[in-house]
């Protein structure tokens, strides 16, 4: 992984692993129809609205930074998307899963119903397009699905299976169901398994990642 | 909203022609030529001889092109069965190229204005010529003894691209950079043996008229020796003969040509869009307040990445800017993303 030459503004474009997968499937799913923007790599604490040189220099520490080349893994790109909100928004949408961390014993189940705070003026909102949830290691769960969103795209995503060593899995729903694995061999000599659950609001773009721990019985 | 739908006017498909040197490491003038004794001794070696840019035992060795000898009567190589001498590697090669170019078993190869029943073929490795050879870029020097000739194609001397059954076929002539040497003939041909062969860019091939090369210098040849007595010629002998005169010539200049089809996607965030971010450093605390009070009415974000999605919100491609692009309510942007296929 290298840095891009920032002497001039250029655009470095690549297909993601998902893009290559869908291109290989040749079923029409590789069709670009929309875009999103992100500000991955930007640390807004470096923005200095009290810079004595004036407002032209507030973003001085950010604007000339060199950026990394694109990562092909979808899990490493577009982490923080830019959103369109009314001017005057004082609070950004924040996801509340009801859990700061999830710990399950082998075979135990849990339903997670995300809510979005501060979205479009509402204190607490269930986003109409639902939420995408990604478990970083699908082997830790015997069941991982989303319910509540029945659009063709969501149904297709929930039923998608890629043969091979696909360690992460993404589902869509208003409620996400998790059941911990009962397979002992995954634990080896350990007493627990660890993964992460990343949930993104499909309307707001708000995102949260929490740890998931499976305890060996 | 985080996603913005693209409209038909946001897409542009464009094909650009890219030319580059033909040989490994982007060398335009290949001046060192090696063969592999293992390849020459293999069953493939009965038909064609692989030519490398360096010793074939070195890691960086790569096949640049193949040499073959074609003869309609099967002469110039050892028959598969001595009782049917017309079937040999040379007739197989002849039939192969006749099938590819002429598409008719009753047609002959007319080099210039003379029909010939034997020729050499230099077939460039596909990875080197990419899509096709570039007409006008060929300069092949052949030396036999003290006789030297420089061959090129006649692409710069004609106004209409010549086709044979949908395949571009230029005449191989004496000269350089697509233009004839007119000292012997105005069209660069030999005196009586026609042109020096064909330049077939779309198949990455150069057909060399062996009869022309066998002529004396006064008739336009270099007095090359080609053996075409079927029963007495070992397979690969004539291939080696051509290799020798190429090696002695010490210069094989050629460019490749490739059409790159690019899909341009124009990303147009407007002034009221994408001015807030879900970046955790944009908020303070866990309740979502923006980090600076000035960001409430004058938020400022920095675009670093463009994500291109399908209808299922699956990320198909990403484009990274080389430096952050400021976005606020007073700015609009136009980002052109180029995807090559």
Q: Tell me about the largest β-sheet of chain B.
A: 12 strands, antiparallel
Could you tell me which chain pair has the largest interface and how many residues each side has? A-B, 76 and 67 residues
Low-confidence stretches of chain B: none
Stretches with pLDDT under 50, minimum 5 residues of chain A: none
- Residue share in β-strands of chain A: 25-35%
Helical content class of chain A: under 10%
* Total beta strand runs of chain B: 26
Supply the helix-strand structural class of chain A: mainly beta
Helices, strands, pairings?
The complex is a heterodimer of chains A (217) and B (341).
Chain A: E1 11-15, H1 17-25, E2 34-38, H2 60-63, E3 82-83, E4 94-96, E5 102-105, E6 109-112, E7 115-117, E8 124-125, E9 131-135, E10 141-147, H3 152-158, E11 169-173, E12 175-180, E13 192-201, E14 207-215
Chain B: E1 4-5, E2 11-21, E3 29-30, E4 34-35, H1 37-41, E5 48-52, E6 63-71, H2 89-102, E7 109-111, E8 114-116, E9 118-124, H3 126-129, E10 132-133, E11 139-144, E12 147-153, E13 163-164, E14 167-168, E15 170-176, E16 179-180, E17 197-200, E18 205-208, H4 210-214, H5 237-249, E19 251-253, E20 255-267, E21 276-277, E22 283-284, E23 289-290, H6 294-297, E24 301-309, E25 315-327, E26 335-340
Antiparallel strand pairs in B: 2-20, 3-19, 4-5, 5-6, 6-9, 7-8, 9-18, 10-20, 11-12, 11-19, 12-15, 13-14, 15-16, 15-17, 17-18, 20-26, 22-23, 24-25
What does this entry show, briefly?
The complex is a heterodimer of chains A (217) and B (341). Chain A is 9% helix and 32% strand.
């Amino acid at each position: 992984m290298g840095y891009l030459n920032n002497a001039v503004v250029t655009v470095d474009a690549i297909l993601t692993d998902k893009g290559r997968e869908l291109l290989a499937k040749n079923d029409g799913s590789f069709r670009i129809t929309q875009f999103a923007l992100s500000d991955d790599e930007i640390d807004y604490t470096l923005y200095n609205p009290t810079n004595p040189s004036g407002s032209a220099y507030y973003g001085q520490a950010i604007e000339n930074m060199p950026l990394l080349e694109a990562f092909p893994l979808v899990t490493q790109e577009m982490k923080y998307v830019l959103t369109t909100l009314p001017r005057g928004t004082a609070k950004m949408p924040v996801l509340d899963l009801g859990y700061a961390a999830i710990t399950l014993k082998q075979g135990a189940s849990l339903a997670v119903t995300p809510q979005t705070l501060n979205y479009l003026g509402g204190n607490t909102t269930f986003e109409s397009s639902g939420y995408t949830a990604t478990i970083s290691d699908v082997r830790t769960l015997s069941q991982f699905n989303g319910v509540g969103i029945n659009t063709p795209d969501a149904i297709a995503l929930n039923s998608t299976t890629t043969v091979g060593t696909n360690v992460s899995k993404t589902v869509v729903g208003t409620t996400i169901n998790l059941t911990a694995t009962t397979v002992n061999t995954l634990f080896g000599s350990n007493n627990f398994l660890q993964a992460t659950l990343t949930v993104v609001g499909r309307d707001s773009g708000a995102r949260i990642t929490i740890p998931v721990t499976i305890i060996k019985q | 909203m985080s996603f913005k739908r693209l409209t038909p006017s946001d897409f542009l498909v464009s094909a650009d022609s890219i030319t580059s040197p033909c040989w490994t490491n982007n060398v335009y003038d290949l001046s060192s030529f090696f063969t592999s004794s293992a390849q020459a001794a293999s069953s493939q070696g009965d038909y064609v001889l692989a030519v490398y840019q360096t010793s074939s035992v070195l890691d960086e060795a790569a096949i640049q092109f193949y040499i073959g000898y074609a003869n309609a009567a099967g002469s110039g190589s050892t028959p598969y069965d001595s009782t049917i001498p017309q079937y040999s590697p040379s007739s197989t090669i002849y039939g192969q190229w006749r099938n590819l170019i002429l598409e008719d078993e009753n047609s002959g190869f007319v080099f210039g204005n003379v029909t010939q029943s034997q020729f050499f073929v230099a077939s460039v490795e596909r990875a080197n010529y990419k899509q096709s050879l570039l007409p006008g870029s060929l300069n092949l020097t052949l030396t036999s003894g003290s006789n030297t000739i420089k061959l090129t194609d006649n692409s710069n001397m004609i106004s209409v691209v010549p086709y044979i059954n949908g395949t571009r076929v230029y005449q191989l002539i004496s000269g350089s950079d697509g233009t004839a040497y007119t000292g012997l003939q105005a069209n660069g041909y030999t005196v009586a043996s026609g042109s020096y062969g064909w330049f077939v860019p779309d198949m990455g091939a150069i057909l060399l008229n062996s009869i022309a090369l066998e002529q004396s210098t006064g008739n336009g040849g270099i007095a090359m020796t080609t053996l075409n007595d079927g029963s007495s010629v070992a397979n690969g002998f004539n291939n080696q003969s051509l290799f020798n005169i190429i090696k002695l010539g010490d210069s094989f200049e050629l460019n490749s040509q490739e059409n790159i089809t690019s899909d341009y996607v124009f990303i147009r965030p407007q002034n009221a869009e994408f001015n807030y971010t879900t970046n955790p450093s944009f908020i303070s605390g866990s309740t979502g307040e923006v980090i600076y009070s000035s960001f409430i009415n004058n938020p400022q974000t920095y675009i670093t990445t463009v994500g291109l999605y399908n209808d299922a919100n699956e990320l198909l491609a990403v484009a990274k800017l080389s430096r952050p692009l400021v976005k606020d309510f007073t700015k609009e942007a136009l980002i052109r993303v180029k995807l090559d296929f």
